[in-house]
Amino acid sequence: MGWKDLGKKCFAEFVGIALVMLIGNSSVVIGVALGGYNLWSIGMIWGIAVAFAVYLVGGISGAHLNWQVTTAMILRRKMPVKDGIAYMISQLIGALVGGGVLVYYIWEPYIKYFEAAKGIVRGELGSELTGMFFFTNGPNPAFRAAIGWPYEIISPALWFFAEAAMAFVVVLIIFGMTDERNPARPGGLGAAFIIGLAVAIVIVAEAPIAMCTIGPVRDLGPRIWAYLMGWGKIAFPGPRGFDCWIPTISTMVGGVAAAYFYDFLIRPGLPKTEK
């Protein structure tokens, strides 16, 4: 692939994930700070945003939108490593801009008012309740604040496993919905809808534990911006000193595992394509 074509694809990845993050993180602000949405609504908004992005840029770049999908494509679909790295850089920047910069400046007055009303000091313990507008945490800060959960209720192992499992489910569905050998996959652009629905469902299923990251850049990009905007040690390394790495590593493990699981245990049972 030439650099010009790669540039177009990378820009598409940037736009796609920026759109997802802008809509998704905005829904978290509205749900937590304004009380406008419940968990089901937030999950559906994230899922619809993903479907929108796939419809918008899927024809250009394939709409990977996150590192675990691109890594799976490198390992299992012969995507060139240099192209994959370029995709991943574009995705990280897009998530930072969409889910960090744009969300922060659009919702800044509401965030500051919420902090004042709740007595939250940005960068201190407790500010993960507003940090969740940008990055994920386990246990879910909104549920922890409402119910009074201690941090210990969600162990690092449980957090890692829950995040890996949900990333596994989403990537497994992506591979199934985009496999030309799968006769049950929806025709036309139906795959985008199913993938978006899968995202919505896993968010609703796992968000009470750790907000359901699904992919690294959904957390890491906005987390970088939040660190710069005053969340400091709550963003890096996190309230317990290790939190910042669990969403990235767990979702990469889950996503890549799903790709191998699909190719070795599901795809062999599909009809062979005619040559």
Poorly predicted sequence stretches spanning 5 or more consecutive residues = none
Note the total helix count: 10
- Taken together, the total number of domains comes to 1
- Write the CATH fold name: Glycerol uptake facilitator protein
Rounded to the nearest angstrom, the distance between the terminal CA atoms is: 25 Å
Described by the principal axes of the CA atoms, the overall outline is: globular
Structure classification: mainly alpha
CATH architecture heading: Up-down Bundle
Which value, in Å, is the CA radius of gyration?
18 Å
Outline the biggest β-sheet: none
Order of helices and strands: HHHHHHHHHH
CATH class: Mainly Alpha
Percent range for helical residues?
over 70%
Written description of the protein model:
It is found in: Membrane. Pfam families: MIP. The chain crosses the membrane at residues 12-37, 43-65, 85-107, 157-177, 189-211, 245-265. GO terms for molecular function: glycerol channel activity. This protein has helices at 3-33, 39-61, 67-76, 81-118, 128-131, 141-147, 156-177, 190-210, 216-235, 246-266. The chain has 275 residues and is mainly α. The chain has a single domain (3-269), classed as Up-down Bundle (Glycerol uptake facilitator protein). The radius of gyration is 18 Å and the shape is globular.
